[in-house]
Amino acid sequence: MRKLLIATAIALLTSTAANAKIYDVDYANSTIEFAGKHAGKDFKGKFGEWNAQIDFDPEHLDTSSIKASFTTGTAVTGNKMYDGTLPSEDWFDAEKFPKADFVSTSIISKGGSNYIAEGTLTIRGIPKPAKIIFVLTDLSKSPVNVKAALVVNRLSYDIGKKSDAKAEWVNADIDITLNINATAK
User: Fold this and answer.
1) N or C: which end of the chain has fewer CB within 10 A?
2) pLDDT in tens, 52-102
3) Number of domains the chain contains
4) Is 33 within 8 Å of 75 (Cβ atoms)?
5) CATH number at residue 41
6) Distance (Å, rounded) from C-alpha 1 to C-alpha 153?
7) Chain-centre distance of CA 172, in angstroms?
């Protein structure tokens, strides 16, 4: 009887976890970018190093998940002053907090190819609830393209809080966009 219970439990766990498909990200053709305003002028940048683990099946959102991590010290804008400031202690503090992470807790269908991944975004060791809105291309064609967006209030993560606590120079809300190409394993 005990063997039957163990075998049943293993079968249930295996079948539940197997519902979501694992995707391999094409990092060479994918980006995580950010944008905002400094002194009234638009700026854009991207993270040079990041990774993502995507387990997704629209028929089994309960077992789908997204985990992503980006290396804070690889944020670049092409502007020497910005690029020198971003990894500093007041901004990303890349030496103390080299990674920022998003871990989904649920994925919700908004109809069609539209979804929301709810979870926790941790930057500078500060975890906050976050929602990533994303749209997928046809899952039956490879690679799948994911376009996603979220807005991050930098001050809620203490980013630039010492030098610009009132967001007089750099706007508080920073737009993050993801353009990810991935193939199901």
Assistant:
1) N
2) 999 999 999 999 999 999 999 999 999 999 999 999 999 999 999 999 999
3) 1
4) no
5) 2.40.128.110
6) 55
7) 19
